C-alpha cells in the first residue's frame, strides 16, 4: 500500500504543473495533493494487476480518477452544498482560495482528468481509452456523482428516524439513501475497479463482478464513514465531526441507528470478502481489513 501510494503521489505531482494563471492551478493541486489513502487510484491499479495488466499503463487513468474524486470534494465542501470548512485535516479549498476559484478549480479538474487519460495513456489503444472515458463521463455526470449530490441536497432534513410516520415513508427513505450513496460514493469505486479491469482486457463477466464488488464496497465504505462521523475525533476523521447528525442529514446511522449500521457493514464485509477471495488480492484485503479494524475498536 505504501509503495502504491508513493507511486500515485509522484505521478500526481508530475501531472499537476503550476502554470498561468497560477491561482487556478494551485487550487486544483491543493485538494488533489491533500494527504490521503488514495483508495480509488490504488483500486484501479490493483484491478489492472489482478487481470494481468501492466499497472504503469493504468497510472494516468488512476490519477485521473483521483482528480475526479478531488473535484467532488471541492464542490461538496462549498457553502451551497455541505458547507464544510475542513477536508483531510486541512482547510477546505474555498476557505483557502475563495468560493469562485474553488468552483472553477472543480470544473477544471473535471475536464483535465479525461484530457490526462487521452494524452498520457500512450500504451492504451484508442478503443480502450474510449471505453474508460465512457465509464468516466457516466460517473462524473448526471447519471453518477451529480445525481447523488442532487438527491442528497433534496433529502436534507430527512435524518430523524423518529420522523418516519409510515411504512411507505421508511421504504422511500431507504431507497433514497441507497440511491444517494450508490452515486455519491460507490460510483467512484465502480469507475476505479472497472477502468483497471478494462485496461487489462478483462472479460464482460469479470467486469460485471468488479462492478458488483465496487457497489458493495462503496456502500460499506459509506456506512463506515457514517459510523466514524459519530464515534471519531477531528484528528482521526480530518473533517468536522458530527456535522451530518447536527444537520439532520439522511445517513445510515440516522436511519438505522448505530448498532444496525454496524450489522449492515459486517454483512457487506462478508460478501465483499468472498468476492475478493477469488482474486487473491492482498491490497484489497488490506483496504477492507483496515476499515473493519477501525470499527471494531
Written overview of the protein:
Strands 1-2 form a two-stranded antiparallel ribbon. The model has no long low-confidence stretch (mean pLDDT 93). Helices cover 74% and strands 1% of the residues. A hairpin with a 2-residue loop joins β1 and β2. α4 (55-76) packs antiparallel against α6. It has helices at residues 2-15, 22-32, 39-50, 55-76, 93-97, 99-120, 126-140, 145-154, 167-199, 204-231, 234-237, 243-246, 252-256, 258-277, 282-296, and strands spanning 86-87, 90-91. 41% of the residues are buried. It is an all-alpha fold and 297 residues long. The chain has a single domain, classed as Orthogonal Bundle (Farnesyl Diphosphate Synthase).
**Main structural class:** mainly alpha
CATH architectural designation = Orthogonal Bundle
CATH superfamily: Farnesyl Diphosphate Synthase
**Average pLDDT metric:** 93
Helix percentage: over 70%
Number of helices: 15
Biggest sheet character:
2 strands, antiparallel
Radius of gyration: 19 Å
Q: Show unreliable segments.
A: none
Q: What is the third-level CATH name, the topology?
A: Farnesyl Diphosphate Synthase
N-to-C CA distance: 22 Å
Number of domains: 1
Strand-helix topology:
Layout lengths: L1 H14 L6 H11 L6 H12 L4 H22 L9 E2 L2 E2 L1 H5 L1 H22 L5 H15 L4 H10 L12 H33 L4 H28 L2 H4 L5 H4 L5 H5 L1 H20 L4 H15 L1
Antiparallel strand pairs: 1-2
Features:
mainly alpha, two-stranded antiparallel sheet, Farnesyl Diphosphate Synthase, 297 residues, 1% strand, single chain
Amino acid at each position: 500500500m505504501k509503495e502504491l501510494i508513493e507511486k500515485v503521489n509522484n505521478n500526481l505531482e508530475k501531472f499537476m504543473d503550476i502554470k498561468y494563471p497560477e491561482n487556478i492551478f494551485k487550487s486544483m493541486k491543493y485538494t488533489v495533493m491533500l494527504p490521503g489513502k488514495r483508495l480509488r487510484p490504488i483500486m484501479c491499479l490493483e484491478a489492472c494487476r489482478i487481470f494481468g495488466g501492466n499497472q504503469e499503463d493504468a497510472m494516468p487513468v488512476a490519477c485521473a480518477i483521483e482528480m475526479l474524486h478531488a473535484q467532488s470534494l471541492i464542490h461538496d465542501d462549498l457553502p451551497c452544498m455541505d458547507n464544510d470548512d475542513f477536508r483531510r485535516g486541512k482547510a477546505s479549498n474555498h476557505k483557502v482560495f475563495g468560493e469562485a476559484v474553488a468552483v472553477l478549480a472543480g470544473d477544471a479538474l473535471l475536464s483535465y482528468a479525461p484530457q490526462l487519460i487521452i494524452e498520457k495513456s500512450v500504451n492504451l489503444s484508442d478503443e480502450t481509452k474510449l471505453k474508460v472515458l465512457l465509464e468516466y463521463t457516466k460517473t462524473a455526470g448526471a447519471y453518477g456523482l451529480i445525481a447523488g449530490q442532487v438527491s442528497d441536497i433534496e433529502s436534507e432534513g430527512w435524518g430523524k428516524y423518529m420522523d418516519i410516520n409510515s411504512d411507505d415513508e421508511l421504504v422511500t427513505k431507504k431507497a433514497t439513501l441507497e440511491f444517494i450513496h450508490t452515486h455519491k460514493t460507490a460510483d467512484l469505486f465502480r469507475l476505479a475497479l472497472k477502468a483497471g479491469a478494462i485496461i487489462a482486457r478483462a472479460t464482460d463477466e469479470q467486469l460485471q463482478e468488479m462492478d458488483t464488488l465496487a457497489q458493495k464496497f462503496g456502500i460499506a465504505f459509506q456506512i463506515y464513514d457514517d459510523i466514524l462521523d459519530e464515534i471519531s475525533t477531528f484528528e482521526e476523521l480530518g473533517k468536522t465531526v458530527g456535522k451530518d447528525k447536527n444537520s439532520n442529514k439522511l445517513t445510515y446511522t440516522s436511519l438505522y441507528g448505530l448498532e444496525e449500521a454496524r450489522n449492515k457493514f459486517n454483512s457487506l464485509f462478508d460478501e465483499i470478502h468472498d468476492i475478493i477471495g477469488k482474486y487473491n488480492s492482498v491490497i484489497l484485503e488490506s483496504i477492507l481489513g483496515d476499515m473493519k479494524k477501525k470499527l471494531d475498536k
